[in-house]
Design goal:
Strand content: 15-25%
Distance between the termini: 38 Å
Bound molecules: S-adenosyl-L-homocysteine
Order of helices and strands: HHHEHHEHEEEEEEHEEEEHEHHHHE
Number of helices: 12
Length: about 325
């Protein structure tokens, strides 16, 4: 999965295969920019804070966020430095084009979160974790086996070590997924936030509680496709185990808020008010499209429920916007 996705993002335009929230409506990035600005204030408005994004895709989320920040909190814009974590050279070029023109200014790119400087940090990541590779284990009557891919098919070999924790209760025949990279990232980010201050916001598809199930999927031209066919030619994703991430971050001393259903989180941030405000100044067809886009993010049967928002914070910070009861 790691090699297939590295090849995929290095060579393909992923937006032919799927649409992400920032590509659906400008309001998504604007709300996340406002989220970062308000959180920065609650940190005591530190100078030299990093505004970082993992897997920025086309840079749309960050362009919308920076525009909102510029308009609503120029002091944050002046205090922050933009850092982007992106492995695809192709997408780095697209991001530079979008984010480093004119007064939008400078950005620094990194291969991984470990390369970010030790500074107070505001980290955003939308649909990043679901692209990280998972391992799949299958509960058999005589123990656990692990799925490997050979010649375009799954083969099962004895698992060593077998999965532990809540998912180890799975019934015979069930599949359990582990995303070690995502858990390591949650630990790394939590350590940084505890040491230098700040908050991270992860938005992705997945259940709130760890649960067995095979969630590996491929999309090709917007349609479900065989995940094992033509590796590197289609986007592979798996659901994010938010409970495992939150537990990893908590073990490293950070505070966790959520996960909340995306619809609830965005509604609390003002998705519909902001959408209405923009729509009022638009011709009717464009206004209707904007309102439809907001619904697509918020409706439970679309992205509103399966997508979740999890925040990992320095333990002294109040719950960030959207997470307070
Ligand atoms: N956040 C964007 C894009 C999501 S697609 C949006 O909402 O539209 C996933 C993004 O993560 C792409 O930019 C891809 O190149 C990047 N990516 C995937 N695996 C990565 C990894 N291991 N390290 C850094 N970036 C990665």
């Amino acid at each position: 999965m790691a090699r297939a996705n590295a090849a995929y993002y290095a060579t393909r335009d992923p937006y032919r295969d799927f649409a992400t929230a920032p590509e659906i409506t400008q309001v998504f990035g604007e709300l996340l920019g406002a989220w970062a600005a308000v959180t920065w204030q609650s940190m005591g408005a530190p100078d030299g804070v990093l505004l970082a994004e993992m897997g920025p895709g086309r840079g749309t989320l960050m362009a919308d966020a920076l525009r909102a920040i510029e308009q609503t909190m120029p002091a944050f814009r002046a205090a922050m430095r933009l850092h982007l974590v992106e492995t695809s050279p192709r997408l780095r070029a697209v991001q530079a084009q979008k984010l480093c023109q004119g007064k939008l200014g400078q950005a620094t790119w990194h291969e991984s979160a470990a390369e970010l400087p030790d500074r107070p940090l505001l980290l955003l990541a939308n649909e990043f974790l679901d692209a990280l590779p998972v391992r799949q284990f299958v509960r058999r009557t005589d123990g656990w086996s692990e799925r490997h891919v050979q010649g375009g098919r799954f083969v099962e070999l004895p698992a060593s070590p077998p999965p532990t924790g809540a998912v180890a209760e799975a019934a015979s025949g069930q599949v359990v997924e582990l995303c070690e990279l995502a858990c390591r990232l949650a630990t790394e980010v939590a350590r940084r936030l505890v040491a230098s201050g700040g908050a991270a916001l992860f938005i992705d598809y997945g259940p709130a509680r760890s649960a067995p199930g095979d969630s590996l999927q491929a999309l090709h031209n917007g349609q479900p496709a065989d995940p094992l066919a033509e590796p590197g030619s289609r986007d592979l994703t798996a659901h994010v185990d938010f409970q495992a991430l939150a537990e990893a971050a908590a073990r490293a001393g950070a505070a966790c808020h959520g996960p909340l259903p995306l619809g609830l989180f965005l509604a609390r941030l003002g998705l519909f008010q902001r959408t209405d405000a923009i729509a009022r100044a638009q011709p009717p067809a464009r206004a209707a499209a904007l309102i439809e886009s907001a619904r697509r993010l918020a409706e439970p049967d679309q992205m509103g429920r399966l997508c979740k928002a999890l925040s990992i914070c320095h333990p002294a910070l109040p719950p960030p916007p959207g997470f307070a009861e």
